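If your schedule permits, I should be very grateful for your opinion on a structural question. I have a record of one protein: its chain in single-letter code and its fold written as discrete structure tokens. Would you kindly read the sequence against the tokens and tell me how you understand this chain to fold? Thank you for your consideration; the sequence and its tokens are set out here.


***
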Amino acid sequence: MLLHVVYMNASRLQGFRVFDVDGRLLLYILIAAGAAGLNEIR
């Protein structure tokens, strides 16, 4: 979740145009990776 917050702040600095296109895909990858990580921890 820390990476998520950092990326949100970075996207605000660069404008939401980046966040809307590449950022959305990157967030999906981060969320999927985070979910996989939680499953491995369990």
Q: What stands out?
A: The helical segments are 2-14, 16-41. The radius of gyration is 12 Å. The chain has a mean pLDDT of 70.
